[in-house]
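User: I'm putting together notes for a lab meeting next week and I want to include a structural view of one of the chains we've been expressing. I don't have a solved structure, so I'd like a prediction I can at least talk through. The sequence is below, exactly as it appears in our construct file.
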Amino acid sequence: MNLYPFKRFGFSGWLILPCLLIGALVNSLSAALVDDDAKASRKLRENQPNIILIMADDLGYGDVGFNGQAHIKTPNLDRLAKEGMVFSDHYAGSTVCMPSRCSLMTGKHIGVATVRGNPRWTATGEAIDLTDSDVTVAEELKRAGYRTGVVGKWGLAEGSEEGLPTRQGFDFFYGYRTHKEAHHYYWPEPWRGEQTEPLEGNDVQTKSGKYLQDLFTKEALGFVREAENDQSPFFLYLAYTAPHYELTVPDDSKAPYLGLGWPERPMPQGKHYVHDLEGNVTYAGMVSRMDRDIGALLDCLEEMGLDEDTIVLFTSDNGPEYEKRDRFFNSNGRYRGGKRDLYEGGIRVPMVARWPGVVKAGTATPLVSAFEDFLPTVCELAGVVPSDPAVTGISLAPTLTGNVERQRNREFRYWEFNEKQGPLQALRMGDWKAVRFVGKRTELYNLKEDPEEESDVAKANPEILDRMEQIIDSARTKHDGFPLVKRSRPM
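Assistant: Thanks for the context. Below is the predicted structure for the 491-residue chain, given as structure tokens.
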């Protein structure tokens, strides 16, 4: 070792050598500590999956191949089912959009939630949004170190700044803020964060410009690809608007369904919804385009090596609007009703979860589950406890991870509906389902024997009916914005 530089300043060799050895030891220990920190970080990362929730809009239980769809091709959703777990008895938070999404975000059934109806169906006619007091799934996951993003339809900030996703725990937002915006696939001003971002050439009436669902997919892929530059796990809520009205899709998605001899269904042409002329081909094309885009997301995860680190869930916000009575697509499967009904067709929705190596492939569960369960489920997967004691959902993590002996069950599931068809309330308890037409009657069905809800057995089971009506009465808290009263138009 050349000691000349040190000798110049009067250091002797016998002092220099120990100093060098101590310095080397310190550097070695520091490197070891950094390496240990990196290992700990990777360990935490491995124990916290990335979470992607994909939600369709007004997609029926029977609109996907894994639930029996015969006409519309959904190969990527069917792949999810083949590689994951199908929930046969999964329920939306509501039979319409806004309260359903509130239940999903807050982990509460709508009898105790802030939002219990769509924007104009409140007591005052003014929308009720999420508030600062609501604790969302994004806020919970932020506590666990997640990067959070929402792409697509938000619909929980109609009039207030409090309800904006960027003020409800999301780091990133691109899409529709309000319901009116989300009715149009060529909307000219989607939101990015808390500002609109004009799209040159987009026009609702001429349906020209960029198809927003394509942009949603692009933004979702960009959010996922940022994982390469970020050590944090991520949560992506991808809220597509397909196949909600208006019915419109680019021609390339219609092409596979042309010339098949399908019955035609001409669509009415109004000022608000600017539908494509032919309904059946358009509807099928919209669902298949969404399926194609989900395939692109799955391919992205595979290319990035994130498959085994990511749980992907797919569902729909409520039952079908396009086909509630027409039975060509059989959108609601075997079930009665659709959107704005509290029969099974209005609230039972497709649900599949895929997580390679954790969720057993090709499985199904009859566990009764609902949107309120999403928050406590991902909290458990992320290693945190829900901070709001009013959460009504239960964690589905034991079922997803194969520990079914640990799986809790809720005694009942509750819904209500506050538009002109109502007020309506519904309760599922075991195999029993009660549908109450407030102020008139309550129907009772045994879903095990009668999943189509064709035979009202209320008169034959007075004790069960009485018990379920008692639970219905106690399940909800009073909400001045959503009184259970008859209305023919917004109040």
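A couple of points you could mention at the meeting. The chain has a mean pLDDT of 91. The chain has two domains: 50-411, 416-475.

User: Perfect, that's what I needed.
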